[in-house]
Each structure stands twice: as C-alpha cells, then as structure tokens.
Amino acid sequence: MSTEVAIIGGGICGLTTAIALENRGFEPTVYESTDTYRPVGAGILLQTNALSVLDSISLAARIEASGAEIDAVPFLSPGGSRLFGFDLAFERDRFGHGFVAIHRAKLQELLLDELETTVQTGMECVSVTEPETPTVAFSDGSTVSPDCVIGADGIGSAVRAEICPTAEPRPADCIAYRGLAPAADLPGGTDPGFEVWGEGSFVGCSPLGDGRVYWYATATGPVAPDGTAVDRKSALRQRFDAYPEPVPQLLASTAADGIIVTPLADMAPLGRWSTGAVTLAGDAAHAMLPFVGQGAAQGIEDAAVLAAVLDAHETPAAAFKQYEQCRKSRAEGFVAASRRLGRLAAVDSAVGWRLRNLGIRLLPGKLSRRLRRQQAMPSRYQPASDR
Ligand SMILES: Cc1cc2nc3c(=O)[nH]c(=O)nc-3n(C[C@H](O)[C@H](O)[C@H](O)COP(=O)(O)OP(=O)(O)OC[C@H]3O[C@@H](n4cnc5c(N)ncnc54)[C@H](O)[C@@H]3O)c2cc1C
C-alpha cells in the first residue's frame, strides 16, 4: 500500500514537492487555504540550484523557455559605476543551468499544469495532532488522517505549531517594494538586469522575457506609511530619484496600485524540522530574507529530497530524519547569509555605505566563484544501496 502524503500549502514548495512525489509514484494530496489561485505577484529569480532540481522533475526547460535567462548581474554604485559582477554564464556552462527570472504567476501556472492531482483549495489547516499517526484539522471542521504530513504552509505555518510551538517569525527592520514595468519604456533596455547598492537600500531589476521588467527595492522604513498607493509611488520615486537610469524610469512606469509592499521577516533556526510523521518544508522550516535570492530555491531543494527519502525509507519518521540531516544545515546557512547581507544592504551612513561598496568592488573573483559554486550545487539524497 502506498504512503498517503498530505501536503499543507500549495505555494512553490508544496506544489514542487507534490510533483516530485508524483514522479516517484506517490499520490499526494495538497491542501491550500486560499479559495482560488490568482495570477498575482511580481517576478522571481530562480538560481542554478533551483533549476537543477527542477530539471530532475522535467520542469526546467519549460521554465527557461517561459522566463528570461540571466547571464550577468552587475552591481552598481548609486552613481552608476560598476562595483562587481557575478559571471553567471560560467554557471550555465558548468552546471547546465543558470539563473532564470520569471513572473511568479507563470511559475505557478507551470507547476499547477505539471501536477497530476487537483489541489484541494479552501482548506485552511488549523492544527496537526498526534504526530506519530497524524490528524490534520481544517477550519471548516473536517479532518484527515494521512500516513504523513508535510507542512509547506509558509512563514506563518500552522503545522509548525506541532513541531516547534514557540517558534515565531523574526521581523527585520526592512521593507521590500516590488513592481513590474513595460520593458519598452526603459532607455537602453535592461539586459541583463542589475543591482544598485545605495544608502540604506538597494534596487535591482531583471527582464522577465515577456516584455516586462521586474524590479525590487528595499528600504529600512516604510515610505508614505499612511498614504495611498499613489502617495507611496511618489515617495518611492523621490527616494530613488538620484539613482542611475533606468531606476527612476522603472518607478515612473509602474502602476501605483501594482506596487507590492512586504515587511520582511525570517525564522531563526528551529530546534528540529520534524516530529514523528510530520515535517516542515520551504518557508515554514527556513524562511529567509530575500538578499541571497535563495528562499524559493531552498524550498525546491526540500521538495526533491523529501520525495527521495520517502521513496527510500520504510517509515515516514525515518525518512524525515534523513531529510532533516540532508537539508537543515544548508538551508539555515542561507538564512544566516541573508541576514548578514541584509545588514550590509541597510548601512545608511555616508562613510559606511561607501566602505561597503569599496569592499564589494575589491571582492576577489576567485572567492565569489567559490561561493557561487557552493550555492549552485543542490542537496542530493542518494540511498545507501545506490552509492
Ligand atoms: C521581496 C521578496 C523577494 C523574493 N525573491 C526571491 C527570489 O528572487 N528567489 C527566490 O528563490 N526566493 C525569493 N523570495 C523567497 C520566496 O518568495 C519564498 O521563499 C517562497 O515563495 C516560499 O515558498 P513556500 O511555498 O515555502 O511558502 P509560501 O509561498 O508562503 O506558500 C505557502 C502556501 O501555503 C498556504 N497556506 C498558508 N497557511 C496555510 C494553512 N494554514 N493551511 C493551508 N494552506 C496554507 C498559502 O496560501 C500559500 O499558498 C523572495 C521573498 C521576498 C519576500
């Protein structure tokens, strides 16, 4: 009899986990709290490790064809001079995949399209009890008792309460703003995208391969906190007015009500990810600040390892122990690295940000390539019998 797997949360991690399990012959059920999937959100940058995992479940080619492949991301000073650049074409040559920027709605559509089962929407999990033989309760009063539960229900996870009852998200003193602008509006195009490291904030952008450009910006406090969307847009335009083009044009060309505002938070490392036949994955386990661009990628790595361990072990509890061993320290390394980078991005004294930018300019190419190589290779689980 096949293991009944309940996945709580149908975001990037939950959907990818379900696809990875289906590829191995499981028939998982995904329970998602929202009533319907809507084509919302801005862009997302999927890095090499994410694409390598997505390739293993036959999704990379479609994602690459639907987004924009990015081969370099120059880091610029607020004056527009080049500080540094990652050579991402190197990763494409070395690993067969590189960075891809894609609209989140398109990614969601591709994942839903690949999934054989239908997501059970409108199913908000309120608790998971008896972790050895788990029961999931939903807000409509219904319950299910699968063989195991994967909590992929995001940073505010309800499943986490059963595993680490005292763990709470850690707010960061930082707000992210995101939006989309038509590429045709931008002087000189935006290929290949860039990041500007300024005083207490940074701004970046990427083409999405569909005629639109995705931009993101961070600031240590909210701009126009009590104002309307139009007030917010004009405060953002003012804030980044002296940045090099196309930053001012990007903001000018973005619809005010399309700007997404996200107060940032992450999770301190949890004491454990699993108890009995219940485990956590994606942001529920290791939500991180967005500065290393690895949040979704780490959830995607979780997905492939979870499918592999469940396939290889007799019991979910043994599988989840192995999963945690394989994934926890790598994912939590990115949580810490993102915090460190976030602190650097927030430096706003004139001396401080100039020193930081000098440090970026002097970053040895060899060191950055070593870091990139570590980042580019996803966790893999291989059963002892296959080694
Ligand atoms: C500003 C910003 C920029 C980012 N940029 C990048 C990037 O470029 N690259 C990258 O890799 N990552 C990026 N990330 C991180 C990335 O967005 C997240 O790590 C990723 O979306 C997490 O996916 P998830 O499926 O784990 O969680 P979520 O996306 O939060 O999905 C959780 C799902 O569970 C559902 N749910 C919640 N509670 C319940 C419940 N009780 N019962 C049932 N369902 C429930 C939710 O509705 C949702 O569908 C960024 C994050 C931010 C904030």
Automatic annotation (TrEMBL):
Regions that span the bilayer = none
Xref: Gene3D superfamilies: FAD/NAD(P)-binding domain
UniProt xrefs under InterPro entries = FAD-bd, FAD-dep_Monooxygenase_BioMet, FAD/NAD-bd_sf
**Which UniProt keywords are listed?**
Monooxygenase, Oxidoreductase
**Keyword NAD on entry:** no
Q: Which residues form the FAD-binding domain?
A: 3-336
Superkingdom is Archaea
- MF term (GO), any: monooxygenase activity
Q: What PANTHER family does the database record attribute to this sequence?
A: MONOOXYGENASE (PTHR13789), PUTATIVE (AFU_ORTHOLOGUE AFUA_6G14510)-RELATED (PTHR13789:SF309)
Q: What is this protein called?
A: FAD-dependent monooxygenase
